[in-house]
Amino acid sequence: MADVILKSVIKRFGKTQTIHGIDLSIDSGDFVVFVGPSGCGKSTLLRMIAGLEEVTEGDIYIDGDCVTNTQPSKRGIAMVFQSYALYPHMSVRENMSFGLEVTGESQSFIDERVSEAASVLKLDDYLDRKPRELSGGQRQRVAIGRTIVRKPKVFLFDEPLSNLDAELRVQMRIEISKLHDQLGNTMIYVTHDQVEAMTMADKIVVLREGVVEQVGTPLNLYHNPANKFVAGFIGSPRMNFLPVIVVQSTARMVLVQLPNGQNVELEFDGSEVVEGQKLEFGVRPEHYFTGAGGDIELELEVEVVEKLGGTTFVYGLLSGFNMTAEVDGDAIVSKGSSMVFSFDRNRVHLFLEDGLALSREQLLANATQTTP
Amino acid sequence: MDIASRKTVGKQQPTNAKGSLKRSDRRFAYAILVPAMTAFLIMVAYPFFDAMSMSFFQYTIYDLEPIFIGFDNFVAVLTDPYVLGSWLTTAIFVVGTTLLTMTLGLAWALLMYQDFKGRGVMRTLTLLPWILPSTVSAFVWAWMLNGKYGIVNVMLLGAGFIDSPIQFLSEDIGAMLAVILTRTWISIPLFMSFFLAGLQGMDYQQIEAARIDGAGNLRIVKRLILPHLKPVFLVTGALGMIGNLQQFDIIYALTGGGPVRATSVLSIEVFRQAFENWDLGMASAIGVLWVFTLMPIVIFYLRSLFKED
Ligand SMILES: Nc1ncnc2c1ncn2[C@@H]1O[C@H](COP(=O)(O)OP(=O)(O)OP(=O)(O)O)[C@@H](O)[C@H]1O
Ligand SMILES: [Mg+2]
C-alpha cells in the first residue's frame, strides 16, 4: 500500500516539451486510470513514475519517499508492458522468478511465490512453457504474474489489453479488477479506451497534450465534465455538440437559440454570459428518446440507422449538424425520414467558447445522488 | 516468376487447361535459367573442376605438359611439414580473428545501441575501415605497428606495459598479432552491423522489464541479449570463418606470409606454390584440400541461412 504524488512534473524530449507541469495525488490502494488521446503523454507519465524515463523538472513521491532519481528496481513498482515484454528464451516459471532471482532470494522462497502467483492467475499448467507457446491471454497473465511475485507497492500498466481481441479484453479487464480487489495495491493503468477507464477506475485522470484536464470518479466525469474535451472523451458514442447563441440570461437561467432557430431555456448560472454570446450545447446520445415526451424536442433528418438488437444508433442531421441518438432496440426509425427526438433539459451541458463548462448547481446535486 | 507467369497467361487461350499452363510456366522458368547456368558453368564450374583435375598432375615450370601422377600431390602435401604447418597457421589466424572480431563487434554494437549524443556520427565513422581498400588499411596498420615510430608502441611504452618496442612485423608472434589485429579492424564494421541489426530487432521493453526487475547490465547481456543474438552469432561466426579462411590481401601486404613462414596461411601457400614455385599441381592439391576445409562451414552457413525461423 502506497500513495503516489507528482509535483509539477515536466518532461522535455530535447527541446519539445510533452508534459507540462503535472500535479497529481494518487491515494493508497486506488485504481487510477490515465486516459486520453494518442500522444497526450500517458505512457511518458507512467514511465516517469516507473523510472524508465527521466523527470526533466518536478518530483515524484512513492509511499512518502522522493523517488525522482531512484532506479526503477528500487521504487517498489512493477510494470506490465503493452507488448508484455516477456523474456522469450525463458520459461513461464523463469519469467516469473527472474526478478526474485536478481534480488538473490532463496529457491524455496521463489518457488513458493511463483506457485502462489500461478494459482491466482491459473497458470499452473503452463509453467514450463515458453512464451511463444502461449495464447495472447496467457501471455498477458504471465506478464501480470511477473509483477505480482515481486509484491510491489504500486502496479503500473501501460495499455496491457490493447493486443487482445474484444472478448478477451473484457475478460481480462474483469480479472485485473478482481486482482485489484484481492491485492488492494495502488494501481496505475494507462489506456486510451474510455470503456476500460469507466469500468475499472476508482479515479480517472483525463490527459490532453501533457496537461491534466480533469481528475475524478468515472461517474463524476460523466455527469460533470469540467470542459468540452472531457465531455467529448468520456462516454460512447461521443456527446453531441451544437453551436448556440445566448438570447437571454440570468443567475438561474440561460435561454439559447439552436441552429434551427428553436429557443430552449436551461437551468444554468447565466451570470457570466451575455446576450448574443456563442456557446456549445452538448447532449449525450443515450439521453435521447424517440418521439416527443422529453423537455426538449428536436426534429432530425435521419441519415443512417444501425440496429444492434438491444439498442439502435440513429445518425441524423439538425440544420446540417451531425447528431447521434442511441435509442431503444425496438424503436421504429427509418432512414431518409424526418423524425422527432427529445431529451430532458437537465441532460444538457453548456460550454463556453474556450471549452469550460458552465456551472449548474442542480446537476451536481443529482450526480452525487446517483454516485454509489 | 510472377512476371513470367503473367506473360504466359496472357498468351494462353482462356479455354486452356490448368496443367498446360503450368507446364509452359515451367518451360519458361527453365528458359530464363539457361543464361545464368551457362555463365555459371563457364565462369565457375569449369575453372573449378579444371583446377581440381590439375591436382592429379605433375605440372611445374620444368614440365612441358602436365604428367598424370594420381594422388602423389596429395601425399606430398599431407607429408610436407611446411604445408601442414600452414594449416596450423591458418587455424590460429582464423580462430583468433573470428573470435576477436565477434567479441569486439558485439561490444561495439552494444555501445552503438546506447542512446547518446552523436551516435549517428559514430555509427557512420565505424564503417570507415570497411570502405577503405584493404591494402590501404594494411599500410596504415603497418605504420601504426612500426617498431620505431608506430603509435601502438609509443602508447604501450607510455603506459608502461612494455620496456622496449615490440618489433611486430619481424617477430613470429608479433606478426601473427599484427595480421589478426588488422583483419579484425577491417571486419568490425560488418560484424557490428550484423549485431546492431540483431539488437534493433529486439523488443526494448524486455530490457526495461529487466531493469525494473533489478537486473544489471551484465545480467541483461547474459540472460536477454546473448540468447536473442544466438542466430546472429551462428551466421556471423560462419561468415567470419569463411572470410578469414580465404583471407589473402592483408596478410600478403602486411607480412607477405613471413617472417619466414609465421603468417603463411593456406591462401599464401597456394600463391607461393603457383606463382613463386610454379608448381601448379601442388597448388591445386592444396586448393582442393582447402575447399574441403571450407565446405562444412559453408554448408552450415547456407543451411542456417535458409532454415525457417
Ligand atoms: N523518446 C521520445 N523522444 C521524443 N519524443 C517522444 C519520446 N517518447 C514520446 N515522445 C513524444 O511524447 C508525446 C507523448 O508520448 P506518449 O508515448 O507518452 O503518448 P501516449 O499518450 O502514451 O500515446 P499512445 O496512446 O499512442 O500510447 C508524443 O508526442 C511523443 O511523440
Ligand atoms: Mg502509450
Order of strands, main sheet of chain A, comes to: 6-7-8-3-9-10
CATH topology of the largest domain in chain B: MetI-like fold
Question: Which sequence of strands runs across the widest sheet of chain B?
Answer: 1-2
Give the integer mean of the pLDDT values of chain B.
81
User: Can you tell me the number of structural domains of chain A?
Assistant: 2
Multimer state: heterodimer
CATH superfamily grouping of the largest domain in chain A: P-loop containing nucleotide triphosphate hydrolases
Give the biggest sheet of chain B: 2 strands, antiparallel
- Number of domains in the coordinates of chain B? 2
According to CATH, what is the topology of the largest domain in chain A? Rossmann fold
Give the termini distance of chain B in whole angstroms: 24 Å
Put simply, the count of helices of chain A is 9
Shape of chain A: elongated
* Computed Rg of chain B: 26 Å
Q: Which CATH architecture of the largest domain in chain A?
A: 3-Layer(aba) Sandwich
Name the helix and strand elements of chain A from N-terminus to C-terminus, one letter apiece.
Answer: EEEHEEEHHHEHEHEEHHEEEEEEEEEEH
Global shape of chain B = flat
Note the main sheet of chain A.
6 strands, mixed
